[in-house]
What does this fold into?
Amino acid sequence: MSLQAQFDDTIRRDHRIEPRDWMPEGYRKTLIRQIAQHAHSEIIGMQPEGEWITRAPSLRRKAILLAKVQDEAGHGLYLYSAAETLGADRADLTERLIGGRQKYSSIFNYPTPSFADVGVIGWFVDGAAICNQVPLCRSSYGPYARAMVRICKEESFHQRQGYELLLTMMRGTEAQRSMVQDAVDRWWWPSLMMFGPPDTDSPNTAQSMAWRIKRHTNDELRQRFVDMTVPQAEFLGVTLPDPELRWSAERGCHDFGTPDWAELRRVIDGDGPCNAERIARRRDAHEGGAWVREAASAHAAKRAAQAERSAA
Ligand SMILES: [Fe+2]
Ligand SMILES: [Fe+2]
It folds into this structure.
């Protein structure tokens, strides 16, 4: 069997492609791009909520938020490792991110002016991440699929902590309830945009689905997120800011309005409210950490030289 035929057969039988296997160059490139964007999103995603760690209203909330933000760092690291199994170089991926040559999720370019944003990010953003990522646990590339299993378990903790925080605020004062509603109003549409452009404008989807990297289209996942979130909003007592949102008995799911796709384009192209700030901070952290990387390399070289001497 030719290498291409073996690859096609593995995909058709729903088995996993592993790093040692032959794969088409397009498959490798698509995966590196997707996994790198995903890793960058986890790392940049630490910033909007990280801003609240020093200002969390109680020790309990601080401990929870610290754990959550730290989990996101871990997700980024598993994903950079998965990209390395495809031959990508992690330092190069970081350079691409801070040089603006590789993207991350549009959602992390929005500001977090109130503590209710921490709750709404957990509920919406981690909730949307779960919709996107649960099907990736069955992605055709083994290291990516396996990283997703653990990440998804942690994302469900993130979503619950967000929802629990909002439930607590909704049982509080009028001012707290209006903080929650205000955060819901600001995050709803950007969260729907997290699933990417509509299927009619998503040229790579068909190939990714044929390779079984992706299992559902952007619009299918967006619909799933809306259907999951509506009853949660009712229970919480908040209004989702979409006058067109209603149950469709005919379709068996919710109808909803159209996100502002021009806004998504602008934010992806670098012109969102916080793009410049997010990248500047990431660049500072990378430059500030240069001495740690140098020290670690010098130490590794010293140990290698010692080992060589004692072997001699
Ligand atoms: Fe994450
Ligand atoms: Fe998360």
About this structure: Residues 79 and 121 are 21 Å apart (CA to CA). The beta strands are 246-248, 253-255.
